[in-house]
Write a structure and sequence with these properties.
It is built from 16 helices and three strands. With 317 residues, the protein is mainly α. The chain has three domains: 72 residues, Orthogonal Bundle (Endonuclease Iii, domain 2), CATH 1.10.1670.10; 120 residues, Endonuclease III, domain 1 (Orthogonal Bundle); 72 residues, Arc Repressor Mutant, subunit A (Orthogonal Bundle). Strands 1-3-2 form a three-stranded antiparallel β-sheet. The chain starts with 8 loop residues before the first helix and ends with a strand. Bound molecules: iron/sulfur cluster (SF4). The site of iron/sulfur cluster (SF4) has 14 residues, from helix 10 and helix 13.
Length: 317
C-alpha cells in the first residue's frame, strides 16, 4: 500500500477544520492556552482515560493553580495526590513537580534566558515555546513537548499518535512506518495552525475513526477522499483484523441510504459499484451481499426494492 494524499490539500484541510469547529468534545484543557495547564492535562492523559482525567485535572489546579504553586509544593504531596487519584506511575508526579521547578527557576528555554530566571521567573516562570526547548523539561518527551507547543503557543509540528496513524492509514493509505506517518502528517497540516489542526485530527481519530469506525454517524468530513471508506477495508496498524462485521455493515447501510437520497432510484449493480470499489456482481461482495443488505434496510422500512425488466431497483421508501 502506498500513500495517496489528495492533490487538493486545502479542501481536505478546510473540511476537517470546519467539522471540528462545528462540534467537538469540550475538555477543560481545550479552553485554555496556559502551558502549565496543558502540560498537566497531557501528563495526566498519558495513562488515564480522559473522563477520569477531567476530575483529577480540576482538583490538581484547585490545589496548585499556577506553575509557581506546584514548584513550591512538597514533592511528597504531589505524589500522594497522584496515587490518590489513580493517575498511574508516581514518577510522572515527580517529573511534573521537577518540571515546574525548572520553569520557575528559568532553567529551560532559549540559551539567552537570564540565569536564575530574571524577571520572568520572579513573575511566576515562563515556559519555553518551542518543542525542542520544551523537551528540556523533566519527563517531557517529544509527543508532550509538541502538544504543549501546539495547544499553548500554536507553535508545534503535526502530532502523530495512534489515533492519527489510524486515520492517515485508513484515509490515505499511509503505510505503517513512522517516517511515512510523520511526513504525511506534516504535509497535511496547514502552516502555523498546529493548535486547531492537531486538535481536529485527534478528534477525528477519537470520535469518528476509532477502532470501529463511525464514518457516517460522525459525519466524517473525509469520506469522499477516504480509501477505507471506499474499499470497506477498515484495518489499521492498531486494528489488524477487519473491525466487527456489524461495524462495517453499518457503514454500507449508511452509504446506501445516502446515495439513494441523492437519486430517485438505482439498480443493484450501479448502486454496488458506487458503494464499494471491490464490488463485482458475482464476487464475495456482489449482488448476493448487496441484496441481503437491501433486504435488511427494507425490513427496517427504509428502502423499497422492485424487480423490473430483469433489474433489481432500489429506492428510498
Ligand atoms: S471515512 Fe471513516 S475510515 Fe475514513 S477517515 Fe473518516 S472515519 Fe476514518
Amino acid at each position: 500500500m502506498s500513500a495517496h494524499l489528495p492533490d487538493d490539500r486545502d479542501a481536505v484541510r478546510e473540511a476537517l477544520i470546519a467539522w471540528y469547529e462545528d462540534d467537538h468534545r469540550e475538555f477543560p484543557w481545550r479552553r485554555t492556552d496556559d502551558p502549565y495547564r496543558i502540560l498537566v492535562s497531557e501528563v495526566m492523559s498519558q495513562q488515564t482515560q480522559l473522563s477520569r482525567v477531567e476530575e483529577a485535572y480540576a482538583d490538581f489546579l484547585d490545589r496548585w493553580p499556577e506553575v509557581a504553586d506546584l514548584a513550591a509544593a512538597e514533592r511528597g504531596e504531589v505524589v500522594s495526590f497522584w496515587s490518590g487519584h489513580s493517575l498511574g506511575y508516581n514518577n510522572r508526579a515527580k517529573y511534573l513537580h521537577e518540571a515546574a521547578t525548572q520553569v520557575v527557576e528559568g532553567e529551560v528555554g532559549p540559551a539567552d534566558r537570564p540565569p536564575g530566571g530574571g524577571e520572568t521567573a520572579e513573575a511566576g516562570g515562563e515556559f519555553p515555546t518551542d518543542p525542542d526547548d520544551l523537551q528540556e523539561l523533566m519527563g517531557v518527551g517529544p509527543y508532550t513537548a509538541n502538544a504543549v507547543a501546539s495547544f499553548a503557543f500554536n507553535n508545534g509540528d503535526a502530532v502523530v499518535d495512534t489515533n492519527v496513524k489510524r486515520v492517515l492509514h485508513r484515509a490515505f493509505g499511509v503505510p505503517d512506518d513512522d517516517a511515512e506517518f510523520a511526513e504525511a502528517a506534516a504535509d497535511l497540516m496547514p502552516d502555523g495552525e498546529s493548535r486547531v489542526w492537531n486538535n481536529a485530527i485527534m478528534e477525528l481519530g477519537g470520535v469518528a475513526c476509532g477502532k470501529t469506525p463511525r464514518c457516517d454517524e460522525a459525519g466524517c468530513p473525509w469520506r469522499e477522499w477516504c480509501h477505507a471508506y471506499q474499499t470497506g477495508d477498515f484495518t489499521a496498524p492498531d486494528v489488524p483484523t477487519q473491525p466487527s462485521f456489524e461495524g462495517s455493515r453499518r457503514q454500507f447501510r449508511g452509504r446506501v441510504v445516502r446515495l439513494l437520497g441523492e437519486h430517485d432510484e438505482m439498480d443493484l449493480d450501479t448502486l454496488g459499484h458506487r458503494i464499494r470499489v471491490d464490488y463485482t456482481p458475482h464476487g464475495e461482495h456482489g449482488r448476493e451481499w448487496l441484496r441481503e443488505l437491501l433486504s435488511d434496510l427494507a425490513a427496517d422500512g427504509l428502502v423499497q426494492i422492485e424487480e423490473r425488466n430483469d433489474l433489481t431497483i432500489a429506492r428510498l421508501r
